[in-house]
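Changelog-adjacent note: as of this version, every example in the card shows the full chain rather than a window. The one below runs 49 residues end to end.
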Amino acid sequence: MGVKAPMIQPGEMAPDFTLESTEGTFTLSALRGRKRVLIIFYPKDNTPG
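Full-length structure tokens:
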């Protein structure tokens, strides 16, 4: 279902990506220029994700 990509290391820039969320579309590139961005993934409760 997903695409495997090389693991990035702390301090490295993450590749750009776009995700759908319950609040709309999220694009990492929209946050460029900020000092730090923390990305947390949590699958919906009671799903196999």
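Structural remarks: The radius of gyration is 13 Å.
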